[in-house]
Design brief:
324 residues, alpha/beta, Rossmann fold, four-stranded antiparallel sheet, 10 helices, binds adenosine-5'-diphosphate, binds magnesium ion
């Protein structure tokens, strides 16, 4: 297995204004904090964690939609961290994103044809565009008469198909699926997940699949990475992660998956401790292990020393003092 995309020590600090009217200062919000993570060619890497933990920011950093504050990003072995202008546009063709909200992500005044073909226009590939749009619409399961219509004429699931067609029209290699089914009715979530899986096989895509719970990613992922407050705390092959989670946060997430999940039931046993309390502010993360304020197993060392990432079994990465 070779890495298609690789983050090494990547951070994103958003400047945030605090203080009152007279004492306004800017402090960095560490949305993503020194994360190292690789997405292997052809796999689906699930990325899960509670809302606000930095998943979308990390996804955008990987595809250079956002500049990183620190660290290196490699695509196909090449350092793309500092690319600009034409070189950046060129590499961005190969890396696309599907957004969570199919309502907000599509321009309501553009026809489906214009929405789906816009990336071709941006990249000066207008030759044969009409046929490519027709082919792409059929690939995502939309009738060709959809091309003259507007986003509001479609259901949420169909709108997400339009977003998928737009993301795939340039034949990308890597696609960040940023909670692509979270905003959809449960009855259509499985259809969209299955479509994404079929398209992956047909087009040879590599996915980062973001979700806020472990239910959806259990179905689609090859491996799963768990994020907490700007850090990746555990990464493992899917079955290992669900059967032998090593981080207390991962165990809490598994226990929190609703058993009636439409896509897949996670293997959480009822006696596992569900997560309690709120995620602390990313502006003032706790010292030591960031999870210590909510951890049922907290020890004195956890309050003082940040745990290093260890590999207790091949391919199983975890950042916890108690993981041995
Ligand atoms: N443009 C921004 N400016 C300031 N803070 C931001 C910005 N975007 C996201 N954040 C903050 O960064 C953290 C991570 O956000 P995000 O990556 O959207 O998390 P997730 O996708 O896991 O919900 C949150 O605390 C969020 O409030
Ligand atoms: Mg998000």
């Amino acid at each position: 297995m070779t890495a298609l995309i690789e983050a090494q020590g990547v951070s994103k600090h958003y400047p945030v204004e605090t203080g009152g009217f007279l004492r306004r200062t800017t402090i960095p919000l560490r949305a993503v904090d020194t994360v190292s993570l690789a997405v292997m060619e052809g796999e689906t890497l699930g990325l899960v964690g509670e809302s606000g933990c930095g998943k979308s920011t990390l996804g955008r950093l990987l595809i250079r939609l956002l500049p990183a504050t620190t660290g290196t990003i490699r695509f196909g072995g090449n350092d793309i961290t500092g690319l600009e202008g034409k070189a950046l546009r060129e590499v961005r063709r190969s890396m696309q994103i599907i957004f969570q909200d199919p309502y907000g992500a599509l321009n309501p005044r553009m026809t489906v044809e214009d929405i789906v073909s816009e990336p071709l226009a941006i990249h000066d590939e207008t030759a044969g565009a009409a046929k490519r749009v027709t082919d792409m619409l059929s690939l995502v399961g939309l009738p060709s008469r959809a091309r003259e219509r507007f986003p509001h004429e479609f259901s949420g699931g169909q709108r997400q198909r339009i977003g998928i067609a737009r993301a795939l029209i340039l034949n990308p290699k890597f696609v960040v699926c940023d909670e692509p089914v979270s905003a959809l009715d449960v009855s259509v979530q499985a259809q969209i997940v299955n479509l994404l899986q079929d398209l992956q096989g047909e087009l040879g895509l590599t996915y980062l699949f973001i979700a806020h719970d472990l239910g959806v990613v259990k179905h689609i992922s090859t491996r799963v990475a768990v994020m907490y407050l700007g850090k990746v705390v555990e990464v493992a092959a899917k079955h290992t992660l669900y059967a032998e989670p090593k981080h207390p946060y991962t165990r809490g997430l598994i226990a929190s998956v609703p058993v009636t999940h439409p896509v897949q039931r996670a293997g959480g046993r009822a006696e596992r401790k569900r997560l309690e309390g709120d995620i602390p502010s990313a502006l003032h993360p706790p010292p030591g292990c960031r999870f210590h304020t909510r951890c049922p197993l907290v020890q004195p060392i956890c309050r003082e020393t940040e745990p290093a990432v260890t590999e207790p079994a091949p391919g199983h990465l975890v950042a916890c003092h108690l993981a041995e």
